[in-house]
Design brief:
5 strands, elongated, alpha+beta, 2 domains
């Protein structure tokens, strides 16, 4: 940001879209073409883009602004290739039985069996 360009808050922005490995980051802001109106301080803005699986990506950053006549225009701020490294997490097996799980299952089964026997004795079956 700075000199002739500035980002400003607007509901619905930023807009992040992805097609394959191409990611587009669209911010809303102001842009001036004439040096006389370039009054913005230079600064750095950090925005989260998201989390992506391992691979090669291209991030395009665009600025949507309105010109002097109120017409929407898009200014390309830059294109940045980047790599996400690492291993795609795989499904880990979940233990279906543990000592605690088996103990709970045993208590529940015993309780159900005792309740069933009592119910049969009362009904005379």
């Amino acid at each position: 940001m700075g000199i002739c360009d500035a980002t400003v808050f607007r509901p619905g922005f930023p807009q992040i879209t992805q097609e394959g490995n191409a990611i587009r980051f669209l911010k809303y802001g102001h842009h001036w073409d004439t040096d006389d109106l370039c009054i913005y301080p230079i600064g750095t803005l950090t925005d989260p883009v998201g989390a992506f699986p391992p691979g090669e990506y291209t991030l395009t950053v665009d600025l949507l602004y309105q010109d002097f006549f109120g017409e929407p225009l898009i200014l390309n701020i830059g294109v940045v290739p980047f790599t996400v490294s690492g291993v795609t997490p795989s499904a880990a097996p979940v233990p279906t039985s543990s000592l605690l799980g088996l103990s709970v299952l045993l208590v529940l089964t015993s309780s159900l069996a005792a309740w069933t026997l009592r119910a049969r004795r009362r009904s005379g079956c």
